[in-house]
């Protein structure tokens, strides 16, 4: 069963919970069962529920095919705890569910969780603060003609060139002396250019339901863009924020297995498992996930883009969001993703778990170290596993520095230096490149357009042949004959 799709917005994890529980309640087959010489109607066994739910989750784009049967059992236990299901005697509230023939049924009550409502005044204040901050830096005089309408994801070359010529012409007409920009001005440009690009990539009318602009710290973005090694990994000035040396050595050991240039590998059996447990213990003991608690809602919203036809959008969105992280977190995430990706692809790596494959082990071990909510969320583990799986496959692109962002910021700073501000509320802010979606049409419309376009092209070709004075009459007849054929 495919996901019906939960749009971006606040409390997306709760909305996904409601979607899964509703689908489970509507689709799970019910029948008669016999237990202890007694018949029970409209019920199902735990094993039947695991089978059905396992298939549902693997075919839902929010969770993906790497969901394990054990994770499915864990979710079924949460169903019992939250009274989505009850045993045939009406008992619920515990997590006493196993993959067996124990009988369960659906209660008469609805499993839907109520979404918390944000106070209208808080929402209003967020919007007003966002607008005031934007006004303080971006509202310039005589820039209304420069501000394009943002439509989507594909850069329109024609519009970009048109805007470029307009800007050059206007700058020549209204040239003024460059003005000095403060450090605060520069930081605000970084913050808002990043947010505008993120909003455009996600295709949402507003980011205020997904992230508070005050959560975006421009100094982090600037540092993450400027301080990197030749491999794109963040370099920390304060070494006390870095991974301990013994953790780095252990990670290099497994990442380069069986050839490690950082330490002399002991040869006892099971050494690699001990090293892996040492690394896992360090990350599991971190006080918060690498993506931080405050960005949980942002990354959960991006999880709904993780579909094959939206893969590029997901990569671009994650690339920007990971720039928002504190530099020590970004560095740890980069090194962790590089390590687990190498380990999972290393055919020479001995088995690190008796019952679990290497890739599944990496996802199962580190998912909650990467993403989890400050308060317990019932789908946390599944959502985190989906994200880590995607990051393992695309970490090189996701965690590289986007050069287009640097270019856009430099252009905006240049516009600001050449601008002249009279009042904070004058004009509009300097433009980003325009984007436009390819509009989807029906098959019938496509056929009609194909025919009309082809006919128009043929008519134009015939007219050009006839009007061409340099073409001999014999050659014209020959070409007209070819067109008719």
TrEMBL record:
Pfam families: DEP, RhoGAP
This protein's GO CC annotations: nucleus; transcription repressor complex
Protein's GO biological process: intracellular signal transduction
Organism domain of life: Eukaryota
Domain Rho-GAP: 205-399
Cell division is among the record's keywords: no
Keyword field: GTPase activation
The DEP domain, residue ranges: 24-108
First and last residue of the signal peptide: none
Single GO MF annotation: GTPase activator activity
Cited PANTHER family: DEP DOMAIN-CONTAINING (PTHR16206), DEP DOMAIN-CONTAINING PROTEIN 1A (PTHR16206:SF12)
Name of the featured protein: DEP domain-containing protein 1B
Natural source organism: Callithrix jacchus (White-tufted-ear marmoset)
Upper lineage: Eukaryota, Metazoa, Chordata, Craniata, Vertebrata
